[in-house]
Batch of 2 targets.
Target 1
Amino acid sequence: MIQTSAGFRGLVQSQRLGSFQSKLGACYNYASGAASSLQHACEPSTYSDGDYADVDWDNLGFGLLPTDYMYRMKCFKDGKFEQGQLSRYGNIELSPSAGVLNYGQGLFEGTKAYRKENGCLLLFRPDQNAIQMKIGAERMCMPSPSIDQFVDAVKQTALANKRWAPPPGKGTLYIRPLLMGTGPVLGLAPAPEYTFLVYASPVGNYFKEGLAPLNLYVEDEYHRASRGGAGCVKTISNYAPVLKAITKAKNRGFSDVLYLDSLNKKYLEEVSSCNIFIVKGNVISTPATNGTILSGVTRKSIIEIAQDLGYEVEERVISVDELVNVDEVFCTGTAVVIAPVGSITYQDKRIEYRTGAYSLSRKLYSTLVGIQMGLIEDKKGWTLEIR
Ligand code: COI
């Protein structure tokens, strides 16, 4: 069943903590290394399912709220990651000549845990983030954790910080896996040692606009990625270079920046932190992954959901000139989820788009988040329930 977003929000907001606490039901009791390594590395956990951290859950944004634990796993010269473990969240020590500090040899991922009414946490396709990190690691000449190691670390981090997972409908526990060259290098070369680290923070909406439509600015001076570069992977070095363009756009009152390809300055690429889709009638289009576009777990999921709903989805080259002739535009990403775009400004011309209760982006948002929260049946095996 698909609910409208308004109905869906009403539903989740009416869920009360009391009913959540009394409804702890059966769910997969994830024990693998979590409990044991937590107890070896830290003081015994006094956590019980009913506990919540002291957070103003109604006013979560996308800022860091430090949580209790982080997970760390190291890889030395043999290219294999040793057994990782949880420790108290805190600062880490790095050599001044660490590869990540000197040459930007680092990758990150983002994934979320949703708290269900029955007290379990629901992860969404963490294996896909693991695969994305593996592909990125290959591009950046780094060893990477196996898919099992990655997913296990995400589970352990989520469970150890469970009291920071917002009540259902109030937000999510954002989980940030990092892979870094932490060994010392001076000459330009891959680092001799690597650290895989996972931390978490409760989050609400990514944009300060909340779920309100974004006003994007098309940037034709700065670019996010170029052919042959690393735009298709989640390297940390893809993000600092766009800060200048974001700052410029925000100073002019825009929500964020839409980048064009660096060669022709004509084809749509991505928004700073998310992928972009356009809608015309029954056809949904998104830039094809040609080396400069991140394929994105939310992007892939939305393509499948839209196809299941009967829409035609095209991954192709999209000219900026097409923006004058489309019904709807929206962005997708783990942090962003699905954000409707109300307007795009290109060369001082502002184009407006359909948004609101009857928009396709609202329908896709309700379906995706419904699956992620466990409110809509997951027929694809995308969610992983842990407790
Ligand atoms: C995410 O969507 O999880 C990201 O990693 C984007 C980041 C810039 C917040």
Target 2
Amino acid sequence: MQHEAITEIQAAQTLDDLQGVKTRYVGKSGLVTKELGTLGRLPPEERKARGAEINAVRQAIDAALTEREGVLKRAALDAKLSSEAIDVTLPGLGLPSGGLHPINRVYDELIGIYERLGYAVVEGPEVEDEHYNFEALNVPWYHPARDLQDTFWLEDGRLLRTHTSPMQIRYMVEHEPALKVVVRGKVYRYEATDATHESMFHQLEGLVVGEGISMADLKGTIAEMARGLYGASAKVRFQPSYYPFVEPGADFAVWWENPRGESKWLELGGCGMIHPNVFKAVDDLREAQGKARVYEGQTGFAFGLGPERIAMLKYGVPDIRYFYANDPRVLGQFRGELG
Ligand code: FA5
């Protein structure tokens, strides 16, 4: 009987099966229990030995039951856990999210304005030839304006572009008029940094060339940008200024008001009508590449501005260096939303 019982116990595949075996052998009216009940009918001299025998069987069965129960319980728990591991209804754990850098947010806003006005958007090389960064922009080597943009020179004679204006040249060499384009990208200047000057910063350059383009178009375009940034009542100011690649040249500022009631003229950048020498330099480059001279006699305007200035005011960042110090206390404030 012990042998059968233990074979059945080990064959039990579920706790329910095992319970059945247990009832059959050691339950109230189980086989072992019944056997114990027959002891009283035995002669007293046999009773003790028979009792010990049945008890030994019972203990062996109990031990086998306990062991098998442990095995089946563990198996049931494992099955439960592994089915829970793929419970697709559980809420996710959430991932730490990044966010767009404040300068990219301002860029996206500015570029959105120009895309709506039909401008192409390009970037360009940060390592630039001297000819594109200076000469072709009417800044010969002896020109004092070179000192205004102190330059990082590379050992091979090239440089890190000091502004995005060389892309005016590159774009015109590749495209014929009429054209409207904005350039985004990093620029570099070898200068002492302070709260409003970095040695690496960004510019947005605009270039428009076409028949009859005038200073009025330039002013209208900057005013449209200001309205895009600061709403219908935005004001713009132009002051005469000098850049070798434009004539006449101007600096422009936008009247900036914020909800805290602060307001001021925000000096944004420079602009002007393309200098004839620039068109000539473009045609020379085109000719050297076997392309037609199509720029002499054209008119157009260009402008260049620094998005950092806009971002500092928009987000209340008091020092331009905070943008590039990779301090999570600053950039962490721009996590999450992408706008
Ligand atoms: C220029 O770089 C001209 N290429 C702009 C231009 C383009 C004029 C087309 C006419 C026609 P400027 O050096 O002023 O100009 O720089 C333009 C803007 O870049 C400045 O108004 C300012 O917003 C930003 N800027 C200049 N230097 C720094 C700097 N060190 N750190 C942060 N922003 C700067």
